[in-house]
Amino acid sequence: MPFALILGFIALAIAGGVAISYIAGSAAVLAFIATGYGNYLAIMPQRIFSQIDVFTFLSMPLFILAGELMTRGGVTRALIDLAMLMVGRLKGGLGYVNIAASVFLAGISGSAVADAAATTKTLVPAMVDRGYRADFAAALTAASCVIGPIIPPSIVMIFYGALMNVSVAAMFAGGIVPGLLMALFLFGYNFWAARREDHPGGAGVELPPVWPTLVRAVPALLIPMVIVGGIVFGVVTPTEAAALAVAITVILVFVYRMMDRGTPREALRHVWTEGSRAVESAVMLTGSIFMILFAAAIFGYLVGIMQLPQVIAETVTALDLSAVGYLLIASLVMFAAGMVMDVTMALVLMVPVLIPAAIAAGAEPVHVGVVSCLNLTLGLISPPFGGILMVVSAASRVPYLRLSLAVLPFLGVQVALLVLLILVPELTLALPRMVGLIN
Asked: What residues form the membrane-spanning segments (predicted)?
């Protein structure tokens, strides 16, 4: 009964538009009181700071800042033009461009919502102008943005790795193949939809000029190469890679402005203006994330006191479930949670309770982590409270209900990939093993 009241409080707060960080903190404190462990709250400050004193967490604000700079400084536009140059003349070409752009952007920002905001205003109007249905264009944009947190860098994976003490570098390597497979699955659906709905495409489609597009886009591709290559091969830590990503992005913003305007003073003024705005946005988002981390520390402490992971592990053992069987059940629970919760909130509530039992049953921690992050990220495009759906709906002016219905086929394709990844762990683990990050 007390937990039902807490869930009711969370639902009402979300419906009332309360910031998720405040909801997480309030729910964590109420959970202690509801379970009769209120006296343990006295030690909370020490527990909170000891749990978030993790070097990896420093990379999050830097990756967020890099994503903000990328969006404001023209890097996003350069990568979209490159995608258009590569696949724009295929039938349904703008659909392929949409997906390919998300793959390129995923290697920089690590945030699905940031990618959604960056691509919706650019690609959805272009697709509608060329004959695509508005709801299809918006739904494809929303679905392709899920690639962002799977291909490294990934803010969600950093959060998960620090929360569960799993190697972030190994998770980054493990996310590359699933992210590319998701793009391939979406390519397949777009191929079918283009023929069913007779989407435009062909030799008559206007493409951006080749050399100017390559000159602007190729340097932008250095950012994911530095991030992914540096982390996976152990040259830099995730935090150092994030700092390098910010530095390269600032240089690119300056160079792009020089190419457009031709004066160093104008370029420096542009970098200063857009950089200031990017820092402000990054600080606000980082503050919100760390408030949620505080709540995660509180929930983690409560889960440990109540020994919930041990109870679930004993249940799994008694039922004689395999690691894959239990992971399928746990994924169903997490998917349901992701439909009504923010990703970070669902991570705080679900992962410490459900995941230790899967690892105890024999699942590889990196595989479980990547699958869990993908699972919870799908909640961003799952009705009724999908965060990406809300962003895309607002930016594209497609009604939320109409967009929620249009995204269901794409969501079905992505859920099929999730099940495949659970059943075939080597799709996730082969690359981390190949580079020596796991045994």
From this structure: 47-66, 103-124, 136-162, 168-192, 213-235, 241-259, 279-303, 323-341, 346-363, 369-391, 403-424
What are 219's two structure tokens?
């340097």
Nearest of 333, 167, 147, 321 to residue 238 by alpha carbon = 167
Per-position DSSP letters for 247-280, written without gaps between them: HHHHHHHHHHHHHHH--HHHHHHHHHHHHHHHHH
Cα–Cα dist 170/433, whole Å: 9
Pair of tokens at residue 110: 């690590």
* 141-195 tens-digit pLDDT: 999 988 888 888 788 888 888 778 888 889 988 999 999 999 999 999 999 998 8
Query: DSSP secondary-structure letter at 227?
Result: I
Q: Produce one character per residue of 46-84: b if its CB has 16 or more CB atoms within 10 Å, e if not.
A: ebbeebeeeebbebbbbbbbbbbbbbbbbbbbbbbbbbb
Domain ranges of the chain: 2-434
What pLDDT, in 10s, does the model give residues 47-102? Answer: 667 666 666 667 778 877 877 787 777 777 787 788 878 877 788 888 888 898 88
Length of the chain: 439
Task: Give me the sign of the Cα torsion angle 78, 84, 85, 86.
Answer: positive
Tell me what pLDDT residue 15 has. 67
Which tokens sit at 422? Answer: 């659970």
Encoding tokens for residue 24?
Answer: 């997480």
User: Which residues lie below 8 Å from residue 242, measured CB to CB, with a gap of 6+?
Assistant: 58, 59, 60, 62, 63, 66, 153, 227
Residue range 271-277: mean pLDDT, rounded: 85
How far apart, in whole angstroms, are the C-alpha atoms of residue 435 and residue 169?
Answer: 10
